[in-house]
Structure formats: C-alpha cells, structure tokens
Design goal:
Helix content is 44%, strand content 12%. It has 823 residues and is an alpha+beta fold. Strands 18-19-17-16-20 form a five-stranded mixed beta sheet, with helices on one face. β16 and β17 form a beta hairpin. α5 packs across α8 and α24 packs antiparallel against α25. The longest helix is centred in the middle third of the chain and has 25 residues. The two termini are 25 Å apart.
C-alpha cells in the first residue's frame, strides 16, 4: 500500500476530490461556473479571486467564519491542534469571567472545517491547514483593515524595518540576552510573549496604569495614538515591546502579547452553537390555520378592491417613475388601511403581474389582462399565486418613504426598490418559523439573532458581525418586514406559521391551495336587506353578486360581515351602468333572504323616475328636456352660473362647459341627468374595463448566479475533468518543434501540422495541439482527429469532451502524446 502525499496547492486538493465533491463546490459557489473553467487549475484560480472569496465568506455561518478568522491569524499552515487552541484558549484564566465553551467548540470544529473545505476556502490535511491567500488577506489584520478578531500584527510584522539598536534596547528592558542578529532578536521577543510563565513575570512588574492600557487594547482595536512624550505607563510598555510603533503617533499591541492576555483565544465569544429560537407563544394549530385563512381571504378582498379602484385607469406615473404620495394616500383611504400597508398591497399586486403601466403617452397604472384570469380562479388558487409572488419578489415595500444613495425619496412602484437579498431572507425567516412545532410563534429578537448567526457578514456593511440588538442592517429590517407582511398575507396566523404556508414551502403552490381550500368559506348567493337602507353580507359573496352589489351600493363597513348602504348616488350609478329600475327590483328580490324593504323600493323608483329626464350632449355641450319648467328652474338657480347656460329652444339649453363637467355640475345641483350619444341614445356607463397590454410580472433581481441544476453540474464536472486531463497530458518532445518549454504551445510548420493530424486520423490516435481562437486566446488541447479536409480538422476534443472542427491555420503546432498518455 502506498502513502498519500498531502496536496501542495489548492489545485492539487481539488484534483483529488471526487466528482460529487466538485459538484458540491460548484453548487455552493455557482459564480465559479461563469464560464465553465477549462481545467482544475483554472477552477482553483477562480476560486481564489477576491470577488468569489468575498461571496463565499458571506455565505458562512458565524462559527465557520470565526474558524476562518482564527486561521487568518494562525501560522500558515496551521495544525488542527493550533486552530483548536485559538478557538478554545489555553485553559488559563484571562480575567474575563467567562466559562469556556471548549466542549461545544471541539464538537463543532470538524463540521466548520468541512464547510470551509467544501467551499474551497481551506485546503490541506489536519497536520497543515491552509486558508486560501485571498481569504487570509481579507481577514488578517492590517492598519487599513483591522481583523474581525481584534488582533494586531505579529512581532515579526510589527518590527519590520526597526533599527537593530532599538531592538537591543527592547531586549534589554525586557530582561532578554542581547543579540546582534535582528532575526534572533525578534524571535527572542516573540518567544517571551508566547511563554506564559515569563510573560506573567514581566506583567507582574508592570504599573497598574500600564495594565489598564493593555486592557483597553487587548480585545481590539489593537492600535492606539501616543503623544511625542507619552505618559510613564505607556513608555514602560513601549520600552519592553508590548507596544510597538506603527508610525510616529501610532502604536500597536503585537498579536503574541494579545493572545497571552486573552488566554490564547482568537475570539472573545466563540459561538459554536446557533442561538436558540425562543417561543413567544404557543397556540392551537387549528386556530392558527383559521386565523391565517381569514387574513388570507381579507388579503384577496383588498387586492380585488385595489384592482377595482384602478379598473377604469389608475393614477398617472411620475416622471421619475412610481406613484405620487397623494395617490398613495388616496389609495390608502379607499382601502381603509395605512399608507405603508397600502404600499405593500400595491407592490404585491405589481409583483404578481396584476398591475402594470399601460404604456400610453399619458402613462398610467391599470390592471393587466392577467388580473381578469386571476379573478376567475378559486380563492385558494388566488392566494397561492399572491404568496408565491411575494416569496420570490426582490422589490421591498418597506423601503418606501426612505431615501436612495443620492438622497431622493423612494416611492411606491418606483425604481431602486429591488433588494436581491429579500427572497433569501424571507425563506430563511419562514424556515425558522417552520422549525418550531405547529402553533408556536417565535420571539422576533431571537429570530434576528439566529439569522445573524447564520449569515453574519450579510448586510452588516463592516465585514464583521452585527450586534444582536442592532436592527439597522438591511437583512434585519427585511426580516422584521417579513414577519409583518407574512401576517398581512395570511402566511402566519396569530404569529405562528400556518399549515398552508408549510405546504407552500415544502411542496409548492398547488399543495398550499389544497391545504387552504377547506378553511375558506363557500361564497354566498344572498344578502340580508334591512329597513335602514343597508344590506348585510354574512360572508364572502359570489363574484357576480359582489360586483353588482358594489355598483348598486356603497361599502359601509368590513369584517366578518360586510355592510352595504344604498344611497341615491349608488342607485344612480347602477342606472348609469345600464340597469333599469325593474332589473334592480328583480335583483334584490332574487338575492335577499329577507323581504325587500319598502324604503329601498321607493328609493329606486324615485331615482329612476328622475334619471335620464335631462339629456347631456355636445354643443360644446347641451341640456335638453321635454319639461320646460325644469329648464327654467336650472336657469334660475344661481349655482348654474359657472356652467354658462343659455336657452336655444324651449326644451334645449346650451353650455360652454364640456359634457363631463356639465354632467357633474347638474348632479351636484341635485338633478339626475343622463349623457346621450350623437344619435340621441342614452350612453351607458359600465364598470371600467381599461387594461394594459399583456404584461409579464417584474423579474426579480438575482443576488448572484443561479444555482445550477444536476444536469449542468454533471456536464460541468465532466468538462473540467476532461480539460484537466488534456492540460496535464504529456507530449513527446520533438526536435522539429520551435519550443519545448514546459507549458508552451507546440510549434510546427503548416505542412508538418497537416501531415501529423492526417496520420493521427488514419491511426485513430490522439495528439496534442496548440490553438488560437478568433479572439486571440491561446490554449492547449488534446484531440483525436477523425477527418481532415478543406483546411479543417474534425476531431474529438478531450478538453471539451465533444466533437469539434478546427481551422488548420489556427493550429500553432502539433505534438504526439507520450505512450502512456496515448493509450
């Protein structure tokens, strides 16, 4: 049995992985696939780029990140025991009064290291762990970028460039033997700081004020400012190298000294275990489902009301995009909600593809054709559609009212509301809800603490963890908005996750709709008419009944039962929509479980008797009426002065106002005029049917490359393996080649190239070629020529794992493979 040689580079470590492990790396870091690397070496190079490493670090949990931070301040390579000691400490009392979580850290460290290895941030055996260089640069301390651990540079780094004389002075003050070798002097000083016994003896002689200075620097930041004539305690520390100069006014506590004061710990509070999610309340799961279903039904009613509000053309779009504050207030008043809640419903309808811009010159918002299809769906399917759109949307209504980077106000439906982290945060929040037993409502603060542990770098803006009580970072705010939005939408009920939401997360919208269906009441086909000119709907109404009733009456109150009120204006609205008085009487008699009250019948007949008695047309506008007395009454009324009426005939008045203004003016005076067409027919005003052209819902702004599917991962791994085999293939040296330098492209004449590939095609052997593509990029490939004709060679390319055709004039040269590679 042979021995396994430890990998010397990240590329060698990746090359030793199995296909499943490589696929896991590409799944965890999909940015490495854009485009697919040519070979393992290119994959390792790309995995070490700054942008890719930053993205990978942002996806680490708190303890995995702390492990990487400890490796950044450890020697390179670091044995496993050294890393463990940096996380658990050396067991000595550091005066911090904290019980060490050594057992938990020891148990959690292998998992954290596995995560770092899978993400290609750490490589090597346990005897020598390497943190990739870019991650070390990002996490290691420097004056411009302090380490998240709060540690400063090593003695060797801090004394670089220090004069030998100054080193001798420090050694003498620290009680160390003099040496003229600067390297030996630095090693002696570092050895003193890492020796617990001698370091303790040195600190025992320190003034109390000097120890206080060290206490302020020990947990970071390790840098401090000094005056040209420092105080005696500071001078005592400087003389003994416990504070080393960074500049004329700045000193730093060296890493070895800080680790002694910390009892060997890289972090003040290692967090190997995620914070526990505390339950704020425990409720009956069935009550939770019913409450969520009721709220979900209210959500559907609110969105339907919004669509109806903008049915005949919604508000105009601002020049900068979005909805004006006045229009948002108007919508909030119509929906009987606060402005932030109204903004949420508007944004949700937009994200679901139910609202969009109409694209006209006078651009306005209006329902889309998809809204009509949505309204025809069963209630449970409509809810599932809204919930699915909310989960995937990157638009963040909670930002509305704030300002963008340029100080401009963020408006509803306006630009700059997309936050790519929103979908992931929503799903993580709901996943934490789902991790609790059914009916359990989590405490929001412990929820935020858990989210910060899972993704400490995301949204903090400082490259380090955010304090648990601070809700200023974006991810925390999105999480809090998610909790509120989920309750509004019926994802949660009474603070706990509903069964239908669990089905949505686990199995998709169809399963969610099936779980919600039994909880939604069947729509009713009747109302209860009352003598005070109101109608009570004891539950949800069938859509045709609800639409007709909303035209004939005004909604007075909502809740478990909706109350409608009949007024002269509402009855006239129904008559304007083409209904006759007889139709209204028949409608009420059919759909009322109580007798039609006499006052309501009188109201309908009275409004119908006067409706259409006056006719409005275009003269600019005119009024005609068979009853001259009515026209005389209008002319005598002082309120008609603004309409500038004059009599053209005994039964006709002309006005300089347009027909719409004339119609509204006479209605305000108490009349019930009807508009008529140029042919004299009464114009019927039906419920608006203004629709935008077909629109697709807004595309969420992705946070990064999409996670590849299994098919793509398999193909990518196969291509990388094939390319790596081709790049590492051994070729025969030829005296005819222009260059035999390892790694260079083979060089042969055109005739030699043609002869060699023809021979390879006849024998079925593989050859090694140099190739320059149309963009001038050079590469090495191993091909098995199949056909050579017309200046092209068709061959199976082992690098790409597919058959390709290459122009002969782009082949720089060709060489035969060594015997062990050719076979």
């Amino acid at each position: 049995m042979g021995t396994t040689t430890p990998p010397r580079t990240l590329a060698e470590a990746l090359r030793a992985r199995g296909d499943e492990s490589l696929a896991g790396l590409l799944r965890a870091r999909p940015d490495l696939l854009s485009p697919v690397p040519n070979d393992i070496t290119q994959l390792a190079t790309r995995a070490g780029t700054r942008a890719s490493v930053v993205r990978a670090l942002e996806h680490l949990d708190r303890f995995a990140l702390q492990t990487a931070e400890a490796l950044a301040v450890a020697p390179d390579p670091a044995p496993y025991d050294t890393l463990l000691a940096l996380l658990t400490g050396d067991g000595q009392d550091d005066g911090d009064g904290r019980d060490d979580a050594g057992a938990a850290i020891t148990a959690a460290l292998p998992t954290a290291l596995t995560t770092l290895r899978e993400q290609a941030l750490v490589w090597g055996e346990d005897t020598g762990l390497h943190l990739v260089r870019t991650a070390r640069e990002l996490l290691a301390p420097s004056p411009q970028h302090p380490s998240p651990t709060g540690l400063g540079p090593t003695v060797s780094e801090a004394t670089a460039g220090m004069s030998p004389g100054r080193l001798q002075e420090i050694l003498a003050a620290a009680g160390l033997p003099a040496t003229h070798d600067p390297v030996s002097a630095v090693a002696a000083l570092a050895g003193l700081f890492t020796d617990r016994t001698r370091m303790a003896e040195l600190l025992d002689t320190a003034p109390v004020e000097a120890l206080s200075v060290l206490d302020r620097l020990v947990w970071g930041p390790p840098y401090g400012e000094v005056t040209p004539n420092p105080a005696p305690p500071v001078q005592w520390l400087r003389d003994r190298g416990l504070l080393l100069p960074v500049s004329t006014r700045t000193v730093v506590l060296p890493r070895e000294a800080a680790l002694h004061l910390r009892a060997g710990r890289a972090h003040r509070t290692p967090e190997p275990v995620p914070p526990e999610l505390v339950a704020a309340a425990e409720r009956d799961p069935q009550a939770v489902d019913r409450a969520a279903a009721g709220q979900g039904f209210l959500a559907l009613s609110t969105v339907e009301e919004l669509l109806k509000l903008w049915n005949d053309g919604g508000p105009a779009i601002l020049r900068a995009g979005g909805l004006s504050v006045r229009e948002l207030k108007r919508a909030a008043a119509a929906l009987d909600v606060t402005e932030p809640v109204a903004a949420f419903w508007i944004e949700l309808a937009y994200a679901a593809g139910l609202l969009a811009s109409d694209g006209e010159t006078d651009e306005r918002y209006a329902p889309t054709p998809a809204s009509d299809e949505w309204l025809d769906l069963p209630a449970q399917d409509r809810w599932a559609h809204l919930a699915t759109a909310w989960l995937a949307a990157t638009r963040t209504p909670g930002l509305i009212g704030g300002q963008d980077a340029k100080g401009r106000a963020l408006s509803t439906l306006g630009p700059d509301l997309d936050r790519s982290a929103a979908p992931e945060v929503r799903r993580r929040v709901l996943a934490l809800f789902a991790s609790l037993p059914p009916g359990t409502a989590p405490d929001p603060q412990t929820l935020l603490a858990r989210l910060r542990w899972e993704r400490p770098l995301r949204g903090s803006g400082q490259g380090g963890p955010t304090p648990p009580g601070d809700a200023s970072d974006l991810r925390s705010r999105i999480a809090l908005w998610t909790v509120n939005d989920a309750e509004l939408l019926g994802i949660t009920g009474r603070g706990a996750l509903s069964s239908q939401a669990r089905a949505l997360l686990d199995a998709g919208p169809e399963a969610a709709a099936a779980a919600l269906a039994p909880l939604i009441p069947e729509p009713l086909d009747h109302v209860l008419l009352q003598a005070d000119l109101t109608a009570v709907a004891p539950g949800p109404l069938e859509r045709p009944l609800a639409e007709m009733l909303s035209v004939l009456a005004d909604v007075e109150s909502k809740g478990g039962a909706t109350v409608y009120r009949f007024t002269p204006g509402s009855v006239r609205r129904a008559l304007d929509a083409g209904q006759a008085a007889a139709d209204l009487h028949a409608f009420l008699a059919t759909h009322s479980r109580t007798p039609v009250p006499q006052p309501l019948s009188y109201l309908i007949d009275d409004v119908a008797r006067r409706h259409g008695h006056l006719r409005i047309g275009a003269a600019s506008a005119y009024v005609r009426c068979d009853d001259e007395a009515v026209l005389n009454e209008i002319l005598a009324d002082k309120r008609s002065a603004t309409l500038r009426l004059r009599r053209l005939a005994p039964t006709v008045l002309a006005a300089q106002a347009d027909p719409g203004s004339l119609l509204e003016g006479l209605r305000e005076m108490g009349y019930a005029p009807a508009a008529e067409s140029a042919e004299g027919d009464v114009l019927i005003t039906r419920a608006g049917a203004r629709r935008t052209p077909p629109r697709t819902p807004p595309t969420p702004v992705p946070e990064g490359p999409p996670v590849p599917d299994a098919t793509l991962l398999t193909a990518a791994v196969r291509a990388i393996r094939a390319g790596d085999s081709a790049a590492r293939a051994v070729h025969r040296e030829s005296a005819d080649t222009d260059s035999t330098t390892a790694g260079s492209l083979p060089r042969t004449t055109a005739a030699e190239t043609l002869a060699t590939v023809q021979a390879a095609a006849m024998t079925g052997s593989a050859v090694w070629i140099g190739y320059v593509n149309a963009d001038g990029a050079a590469s090495q490939r191993v091909i098995a020529p199949v056909k050579v004709e017309g200046g092209f060679v068709t061959a199976y390319d082992h690098t790409a794992d597919e058959v390709r055709t290459y122009p002969l004039h782009r082949i720089t040269g060709v060489a035969e493979l060594a015997d062990d590679q050719a076979t």
